[in-house]
Design a protein that fits this description.
The chain is α/β, with parallel strands linked by helices. The protein contains twelve helices and 13 strands. The strands form three sheets. The protein has a six-stranded mixed beta sheet, with helices on both faces. It has a four-stranded antiparallel beta sheet with strand order 11-12-10-13, with helices on one face. It has a three-stranded antiparallel beta sheet with strand order 2-1-4, with helices on one face. α3 packs across α4 and α4 packs across α5. It is elongated. The protein binds adenosine-5'-triphosphate and magnesium ion. GO terms for molecular function: ATP binding; ATP hydrolysis activity.
């Protein structure tokens, strides 16, 4: 279990992490979600004792990281996969890590097998692809067979197969009863990987809930309506107090917010208007996420608002 209590980190005038409180439970994958600059990496670094909190604390299995007697056996982390010595082989790298932590050599072969690197273990890690480097980083994190695992943006830059593999791997680690915290700035990715979400923006907690709940809550439902008399339909819905906009697709259609297909069908029938299509739909996850964290994004793309004339 990871417990974050009132955690705060200031860099000069910037509050990178601002009074964060949440817990991460074992047995499930917890997604740590937030836009660029939200404070995900800084929070993870504090959990791992790499950064000192300005105030508050982070506990791993009940104690601060620095007080763990055997840190590698308690917490494994993948923060930056490219820190291995480029001229060392994957096996030599892991053996060196194992030796300095009193871990037997047999465990090195075990973790190499777990991440599927046995065949290339004798090759120099400097020549590894990003996907292979990530696997090596995972192998290193797993050396001490830790109960708690932290992964900072582990799928960044990976191809779909690599992403799929990492996703499955994290889920299997959680299924073994481990505590798994994985950060990302993509809600769509997290919705496929995690069961719970801790969402932050500008260092502050935005949501701490299940993925299903967050997705439900954040993606606005609307009803898509198509018929031969769109103008008539539009005025009928507007007369009923509903908000109507044009669908962006090629075929002319309307999107009605805050209603149901039942209610829309009845309004149309009441006016004797023919319907060719009536379907409920949800907005895209990323759209919803951007809306929720919108005010919390630190770096808005410069000038984009001007170019789009406020359409964003
Ligand atoms: N060592 C540092 N010195 C000064 N400011 C820092 C330092 N580390 C992080 N920050 C600032 O703290 C804030 C949070 O950064 P952090 O890297 O934790 O965000 P993040 O959520 O991991 O973002 P990303 O998605 O880009 O990785 C940012 O404003 C960043 O510029
Ligand atoms: Mg980061």
């Amino acid at each position: 279990m990871i417990e974050v209590k009132g955690l705060t980190k200031s860099f000069g005038a910037t509050k990178a992490v601002d009074d964060l409180t949440f817990t991460v439970q074992p047995g499930i994958v917890t997604g740590f979600l937030g836009p660029n600059g939200a404070g995900k990496s800084t929070t993870m670094r504090m959990i791992l004792g790499l950064d000192r909190p300005t105030s508050g604390e982070a506990l791993v299995e009940g104690v601060p990281y620095r007080q763990l007697k055997q840190p590698l056996h308690t917490v494994g982390a993948l923060l930056d996969a490219k820190w291995v010595h480029p001229n060392r082989s994957a096996r030599a790298h892991l053996q060196w890590m194992a030796a300095s932590n009193g871990i037997p050599k047999s465990r090195v072969e075990e973790v190499l097998r777990l991440v599927g690197l046995t065949e290339v273990a004798g090759k120099k890690a400097g020549g590894f692809s990003l996907g292979m480097s990530q696997r090596l980083g995972l192998a290193a994190a797993l050396l001490g067979d830790p109960k708690v695992l932290l992964f900072d943006e582990p799928v960044n830059g990976l191809d779909p197969e690599g992403i799929h593999w990492i996703r499955r791997f994290m889920q299997s680690l959680a299924a073994e009863g481990r505590t798994v915290l994985v950060s990302s700035h993509l809600l769509s990715e997290m919705s496929l990987t995690a069961q719970r979400l801790v969402v932050i923006g500008r260092g502050k907690l935005i949501a701490d809930t299940t993925v299903d709940d967050f997705v439900q809550r954040s993606s606005e439902a609307s009803v898509r309506v198509r018929g031969p008399e769109l103008a008539g339909l539009r005025s009928a819905f507007e007369a009923a107090g509903l908000s109507v906009r044009d669908d962006a697709g090629e075929i002319p259609a309307l999107l009605v917010a805050g209603s149901t297909t039942d209610a829309i069908g009845e309004i149309a029938a009441g006016k004797g208007l023919v319907l060719h299509e009536l379907a409920s739909q949800r907005g895209s996850l990323e759209e919803a996420f951007m809306k929720i964290t919108g005010e919390d994004v630190q770096y808005h793309a410069a000038g984009l608002d001007d170019v789009m004339g406020g359409a964003l």
